[in-house]
Amino acid sequence: MMKKQLIGPFTQLIALQSLPLRGAIQDDQVKPIRQGGLVVEHARIVDIGEYDQLRQRYGSDVEHVTIQNPSVCLPGYIDCHTHIAFAGSRANDYALRNAGASYLEIAEAGGGIWSTVRHTRDATVEELAALTVQRAKQLIQQGVTTLEIKSGYGLSLEEEIKILRAIRLSAQQLPIDIIPTCLAAHMKPSDFSGSASAYLQAIADKLFPVLRDENLSDRIDIFVERSAFSIEEAEPYLSLAKERGFDIVVHADQFTPGASELAVRLGAVSADHLEASTEAAIRLLGQADTVSVVLPGASMGLGCGYAPARRLLDAGACVAIATDWNPGSAPMGQLMTQASVLAAAEKLTTAELLAGITFRAAKALSLTDRGMLEVGKLADFNIYPTDNYQDIAYLQGTLKPQQVWKNGRLIFEQGGQS
């Protein structure tokens, strides 16, 4: 039988314990444990504190995993909004957009979302899984230990099932937790002859049962925007999904306002994007249980303003930060870089940044067993080669984790294997 592991000492152990789930956080609320350590057993943390005290307490009853100082340990990151299950590239779209082309002009030139749909439809389950694994490994190397992945580039019953099966296959090949989300309601497919409402009804009638039968996803997302689905079209679809026991998520207020109010009214787990949210919507999200997921990568990719993260936090919202990694608007896929640039633009504290990619991101995925380092939670953590945790955001993603641990197991080490 495997012994408990005592891991440390860490120059600073940043547990993020006892920080609020919503609203503003000041940096002095973060209490680093100096020369700290973790005791891990069966994938979970069973003790935490000063390393020397833990060593005296457990003696020879633990296996010692010695960490070379200087080192900082903090919870594994959670990327709660990605679209990395796709084939093809939209590099030409990016170049055309930067040169001043409109969305319609890009689409007429063979680009846009339908370029990705065509390439994704042409890929096999195995090919899509391999591409997804490749991208996920890049996130693991950044310290991501829980990863949400959406479908949405199939836009038909058969193709959406294929993508979700590819996500499941990729999960079997990865050492982290994958949370699949069904985004069949990304937009009405151009090859569907009926109305947008008819498409949503067909998805609900035909796809939802398959999601349950094959255990492909228990989360339903929809893009509410002028180029996708209206609030009036989205509401019955989301209501039906909720009635059937799915968690619901909304792509809301990216370019035009209104969908965040729908998300709150229906009790969505999260409202994601929010770049165009009004002051009224910010106040509403500040009082709601719905998580506000902000996606700075989309703003960087499109060259537009950031979501009002500061005002959301000051209003009392639970704000999570995710990459939105996708081939069209957010191709970077660098969580810490995006979060630190957002923090500089929106004046977020380091504590708010870290909360947004750990325990607040966990809430966006309805997960309560991770995001903080405390007794009973999963032993998911990152170790950085520095003596000051503030360096991580300060260096804007250029300082990488030396080690990434998932469920109490080392899954990545710089210079080693992922």
List the defining traits of the structure above.
418 residues; alpha/beta; TIM Barrel; 8-stranded mixed sheet; 8-stranded parallel sheet; 37% helix; globular
Shape: globular
Query: What is the helix tally?
Result: 16
CATH superfamily of the largest domain, please? Metal-dependent hydrolases
Any idea what the radius of gyration is?
21 Å
CATH domain topology of the largest domain: TIM Barrel
Largest sheet features: 8 strands, mixed
Number of strand elements: 16
From the helix content, strand content and strand pairing, which structural class follows? alpha/beta
Distance between the termini: 26 Å
If you average the pLDDT, what whole number results? 96
Number of spatially distinct domains:
2
CATH architecture call of the largest domain: Alpha-Beta Barrel
Beta-strand content bin? 15-25%
In terms of per-residue confidence, which ranges show pLDDT below 50 for 5 or more consecutive residues? none
Task: Write a structural description.
- Pathway: Amino-acid degradation.
- By secondary structure, the chain is α/β, with parallel strands linked by helices.
- The chain has two domains: 115 residues, Urease, subunit C, domain 1 (Roll); 287 residues, Alpha-Beta Barrel (TIM Barrel).
- It contains 16 helices and 16 strands.
- Strands 1, 2, 3, 4, 5, 14, 15 and 16 form an eight-stranded mixed β-sheet that branches.
- Helix 5 crosses helix 6 and helix 7 runs parallel beside helix 8.
- The protein is globular, with a radius of gyration of 21 Å.
- The two termini are 26 Å apart.
